[in-house]
Specification:
751 residues, 27 strands, five-stranded mixed sheet, seven-stranded mixed sheet, Aldehyde Oxidoreductase, domain 4
Amino acid sequence: MTIAEDPATTSPGYKWVGTRMIRPDGFEKVTGRARFGADIKLNGMLYGHVLRSPHAHATIVSIDTSEAEKMAGVRAVITGADFPDPSGPAGDQDLQRNVIAREKALYEGHTIAAVAAQTRAQAKAAAEAIKVVYEVLPHVMSVDEAMAPGAPLLHPKLMTKGVDPAPTEPSNVASRAVYQGGDLDLGFAESDVVVEGTFTTKPVHQGYIEPHAAVADTTPNGRTTLWCSSQGHFTMRSLSAKVLGWEPSKLKVIPAEIGGGFGGKTTIYLEPLAVRLSQKAGRPVKLVMSRDEVFRATGPASGTKIVGKLGFKNDGTMVAGELWMAYEAGAFAGSPAGAGSMTALAPYTVPNFLIEGFDVVVNKPKVAAYRAPGAPMSSFAVESLIDEAAKKLGIDPIDIRLKNAVTEGCTATYGPKFPRIGFVETLEAIKNHPNYQIPLGPNQGRGVASGFWFNAGLNSSATVHVNEDGNVIVVTGSPDIGGSRASMALMAAEEFGIDAARIQPVVGDTESVGYNDQTGGSRTTLATGAAVIEACRKVIADLRGRAAKQWDVALEKVEWVDGQAQHVEGTQPPLSLADLARGWNRTGGPLTASAALNARGVGSAFSTQVVDLEIDPDTGHVTVLRYLTAQDAGRAIHPSYVEGQLQGGVVQGIGWALNEEYIFDRNGKMENPGFLDYRIPVASDMPMIDTIVVEVPNPGHPYGVRGVGEVGIVPPLAAVANAVDDAVSRRIRDLPLSPVRILDAILNKDS
């Protein structure tokens, strides 16, 4: 279902934008022809295996690789000593140490060494023959442990940033982010109702099906071709170059197809290892993670502890908000505490607020992005408290949000003023939908929550070529995860006025197209799409100029309509794109143009969701009965892909709310590193997820695009928690809402 604010202005009669073309990459993927990272095979290729730390925190006393180097089939063995000493800014040093450990292993699964051999079995056997002497150290596995006085330190020189006065002693707190406004004490003094509580979430994995894979082929002249599954091959190039101590131009990165990422494939793990092994062995090397390695050694979303307090007037007006939030960063600084702080109260007008976010290192894998990183956790706390306030005040949960919703011109709690946005429209869409009126039965509950994500712009490039038959090739450097090939083709078709089937979208390597930031931040259709549009318009201007020359008329006498050059007065026969392409050798040479930009006019995204669920009072098991999500897409370039993004975010959020968590034993060893014990939702767990695509066009994009990939995962944690509270009349503030936890709440309702 799609709704528009004003059909007269938001549906301007596009021919291709807004249609559901067959996906350009569909044939290759359904027939198995598409090549993913692990599918790459080169002549003479070796296979690699990584040796990982069995300890959560340990000094590396010594590494002896001599026995491994003598084993059958072994062609190369590397350790941290084969890489430059970590240097540069703290973040770069952390990246280098995370790829391969140096002085210490900081989490179970931390890379210690790697081997390349003729077969996988030989590489594994050799890696296991490497002798490592460890001095095991005390570890910290939660923000409470890490922030406690006298806690073991992961980094003896880590000083907290963002604290005044600056600390003189190191700690496990890397930084503090603060957003504040108004008079907090006055706000709470003026409040008629105050709700507060402490909320916790556990680390969760993005759940991509394809594990990380990399193939490197280094030639004797030092240049390397690298194939990898990632969300941004230009990013893989620059990050790998930092770890290797190389100039980025020495690396050519070819993007493989990607079997899911959701933010988890925005950084490097295997790539520099494969390059160094290939360089040392003089042969191509492939490294592929097992599922166990993916869980133990790649970045999940942060575990968090959030203490929240909100104040309201009797009419539902929110007048004060205070949040203290600690995010696990994993072994190295860089959690999304800042983003969580920025998004926490952003959907609402709150005159008095204080938000503090702390980035805390713990002995777990370094966290990575996961769809709207940081926002689902802070939204879980805020939206749960809003729900509590609505019940205390006797106000409908949609109405209390409408009462406080930001609109155009409001100043966000993190600083900027909102342009045209569609938050109110998502709330109204849910309230007016039949699902919101369905009566509930025994042991059933309904939960509502909203969410915000600011989206990103960043850097994109595109090149457009017209073939001699009049068909068009569109080359970008953005890996296609959520349908960007289709969206690029549709926007190009709209610009040229030709059938979208005549557009061939291509994802080029790092030597075939200009720099592109990674596919993430809900940026690709907006930013790379804007580059494609600009390049198309350059080609069209060239086509008009060539037609003007052929007709010997002024340029302003030529317009481009429906795929052809037309004389405005109709005195010349139209020239089609194919006509002009066939004659390019007489009119100026090949038809091609490029565009590069740093995207501006990013459109903020909002989502409101409602879930109905039923709880088995004897087991605590939750059955999701129905789910409805409304999200402002700005403009749905390809509605099927937009709906899929909305549904995918919901499914992942439900898993986060109900089942998913990293479980560690007392030694810091992960106990559930596989999809059998780490349970993500499957199709049989889900009802049909109904979608409402709200279209309030973003004024900063030629077609009104906002980006849709992230905000959909923000509300589900709170929506599900609110529905559980509605069903059992007991607020549970710790995720996941497992059957054991819910059953305990039912049995101890009166305690």
